[in-house]
């Protein structure tokens, strides 16, 4: 072999090696990691503990991002012509009292200060059916509940109308208490991937968290009646060949009955009619694929559904969880904290629901269970001040995210919305609010939307959590909520279990529905 050929071969091998190495480097850089800050850092003499999850990594499924401002990408309409304007399907609330209003006073009457109104009944705490009715099982019983019905109405707690009294110093006030999670022995990284049953696990080690990917698939079956309606009903009609006006009306009725709401239903039916006229649908599979595509599009898969829970330089992300009582705010806060901790984040919970001591106990139980510190105030303390203290503490302790569980009602129902606006304003004096999650109970259907509108007026909602989807046959409510509010559904509650929270994925959801 002559020297020229040998040199040629050597050069070719070197070039090939260089290409492979460069490819590997680029591939590595492109890999997205949710846990970019997981290496334990040493600050002074304190080692920052980042893994409180027993080594679990969420890995996929949930997506977290850094918030810039608490604004939201509005979905564009199905024709792509512009942002969806929340639809004016204001059926039952026009001129009616809204959430937090005194039912006796029309909404458009002059605002009055907080007065003594009769207390609403305490939300009935459901009997826990699983390990995850966490707080409920742990909540101290009767003495912490709302005042007994037969006692005279409690002395009117007359608070000045929501003037934003902010703690004057940056320090955490004495009125709040910080409950730290039990200390865990960090698991050395080389041991982390597998849980060694034979070693003495620390007594406070966190329980294992179920994989987050594919959780939405569990809805299949649970939404069985919707499947019957949309899946069998609509698909049956679509697959039956030529559709007359009666068939289209039947399709419309089916979608409305599945809680899609009139505007989403109209959009879906229009799209189906156009597509059927131009495409050659012959088989049941083709009809299914078409329906799936139309429904997924209607759910605006392009929307950013990441939870803005990643810290800023020097300050934690702040997540406010709002909604009426009993929708699942505390449970959702706990479930989400669990995922964040599992993802290596340091989480601090603020118990700004001071209406019910049991609510703070419930949150504290979650905190202990997932490994998050909890800031709580005295019963009936000013929620805004507790929220402020929680954020101040979070900044001081350098946590990644502060999640604030707010009240769904107050001692004086009239002031709920004022109070919530105040909580947000006061917190913002300390750190920007990145995410405002509105928790809605899917089982209450249209009433949930009426509630949502009122909340949307007071605090800029950036995402919706639809809970109790496991308890409804009407999965269509997701379409309705998004269309109505113009805010993406980001998470769904699938049960009372600690891991029954899933990121909302349009495709998987429609799959479960059909
Ligand atoms: N089936 C089901 N139950 C849920 C879900 N989310 C919450 N719950 C249950 O709903 C009940 C109320 O939940 P909470 O978290 O206490 O509700 P809340 O909004 O904080 O209520 P208040 O503290 O009274 O304002 C509890 O029994 C929860 O276990 C869900 O996705 N599915």
TrEMBL record:
<dbReference type="GO" id="GO:0005525">
    <property type="term" value="F:GTP binding"/>
</dbReference>
<dbReference type="InterPro" id="IPR042101">
    <property type="entry name" value="SRP54_N_sf"/>
</dbReference>
<feature type="transmembrane region" description="Helical">
    <location>
        <begin position="6"/>
        <end position="27"/>
    </location>
</feature>
<dbReference type="InterPro" id="IPR027417">
    <property type="entry name" value="P-loop_NTPase"/>
</dbReference>
<dbReference type="InterPro" id="IPR000897">
    <property type="entry name" value="SRP54_GTPase_dom"/>
</dbReference>
<dbReference type="GO" id="GO:0005886">
    <property type="term" value="C:plasma membrane"/>
</dbReference>
<keyword id="KW-1133">Transmembrane helix</keyword>
<comment type="subunit">
    <text>Part of the signal recognition particle protein translocation system, which is composed of SRP and FtsY.</text>
</comment>
<feature type="compositionally biased region" description="Low complexity">
    <location>
        <begin position="181"/>
        <end position="195"/>
    </location>
</feature>
<keyword id="KW-0963">Cytoplasm</keyword>
<feature type="binding site">
    <location>
        <begin position="405"/>
        <end position="409"/>
    </location>
    <ligand>
        <name>GTP</name>
    </ligand>
</feature>
<keyword id="KW-0812">Transmembrane</keyword>
<keyword id="KW-0378">Hydrolase</keyword>
<feature type="binding site">
    <location>
        <begin position="323"/>
        <end position="330"/>
    </location>
    <ligand>
        <name>GTP</name>
    </ligand>
</feature>
<feature type="binding site">
    <location>
        <begin position="467"/>
        <end position="470"/>
    </location>
    <ligand>
        <name>GTP</name>
    </ligand>
</feature>
<feature type="domain" description="SRP54-type proteins GTP-binding">
    <location>
        <begin position="488"/>
        <end position="501"/>
    </location>
</feature>
<dbReference type="GO" id="GO:0006614">
    <property type="term" value="P:SRP-dependent cotranslational protein targeting to membrane"/>
</dbReference>
<comment type="function">
    <text>Involved in targeting and insertion of nascent membrane proteins into the cytoplasmic membrane. Acts as a receptor for the complex formed by the signal recognition particle (SRP) and the ribosome-nascent chain (RNC).</text>
</comment>
<feature type="compositionally biased region" description="Low complexity">
    <location>
        <begin position="136"/>
        <end position="169"/>
    </location>
</feature>
<keyword id="KW-0472">Membrane</keyword>
<dbReference type="GO" id="GO:0005737">
    <property type="term" value="C:cytoplasm"/>
</dbReference>
<dbReference type="GO" id="GO:0005047">
    <property type="term" value="F:signal recognition particle binding"/>
</dbReference>
<feature type="region of interest" description="Disordered">
    <location>
        <begin position="181"/>
        <end position="220"/>
    </location>
</feature>
<feature type="region of interest" description="Disordered">
    <location>
        <begin position="37"/>
        <end position="169"/>
    </location>
</feature>
<keyword id="KW-1003">Cell membrane</keyword>
<protein>
    <recommendedName>
        <fullName>Signal recognition particle receptor FtsY</fullName>
        <ecNumber>3.6.5.4</ecNumber>
    </recommendedName>
</protein>
<dbReference type="InterPro" id="IPR036225">
    <property type="entry name" value="SRP/SRP_N"/>
</dbReference>
<dbReference type="Pfam" id="PF02881">
    <property type="entry name" value="SRP54_N"/>
</dbReference>
<comment type="similarity">
    <text>Belongs to the GTP-binding SRP family. FtsY subfamily.</text>
</comment>
<dbReference type="Pfam" id="PF00448">
    <property type="entry name" value="SRP54"/>
</dbReference>
<dbReference type="InterPro" id="IPR004390">
    <property type="entry name" value="SR_rcpt_FtsY"/>
</dbReference>
<dbReference type="InterPro" id="IPR013822">
    <property type="entry name" value="Signal_recog_particl_SRP54_hlx"/>
</dbReference>
<keyword id="KW-0675">Receptor</keyword>
<dbReference type="GO" id="GO:0003924">
    <property type="term" value="F:GTPase activity"/>
</dbReference>
<keyword id="KW-0547">Nucleotide-binding</keyword>
<keyword id="KW-0342">GTP-binding</keyword>
<dbReference type="InterPro" id="IPR003593">
    <property type="entry name" value="AAA+_ATPase"/>
</dbReference>
